[in-house]
Here is the input.
Amino acid sequence: MAWEQVSLFPKANKSDIQLARSLLNRYTRMRKTVDSLSARNAIGGKERLVMEEYKRKTEAVEMAVSLIMDDNVRRVIEFRFIRGNTRWGTVKRFESITDRSVDRRIVRGIESVAETLKLVGII
Here is the structure.
């Protein structure tokens, strides 16, 4: 009898990481769209579908970011993507560490987000 190893926590590949980066980059726009559509009294069918899809994705991204184990990495990801700051603004905010360290934290954070999003079936 052959045993097949099943991974409980799937490892994100390069395309998963690219998709996670894309979702993180679009997060603030998706969140603003959801907030704007939610505030309207009457929305059409397509708008409702967009709102529901964006809401599902933004909630998944928020959850994935909150599950980043390293507090330093999570703070950088929250500042950069959840608050919608630029890379340069993030480097300036975390000026006690080098810009390369900020970039490494961003990469590690995106990898963590990609693994969580893959686990829950978003990517």
Remarks:
- Residues 14-39 form the longest helix (26 residues).
- Helices lie at 14-39, 45-66, 71-82, 87-93, 99-120.
- The mean pLDDT is 92.
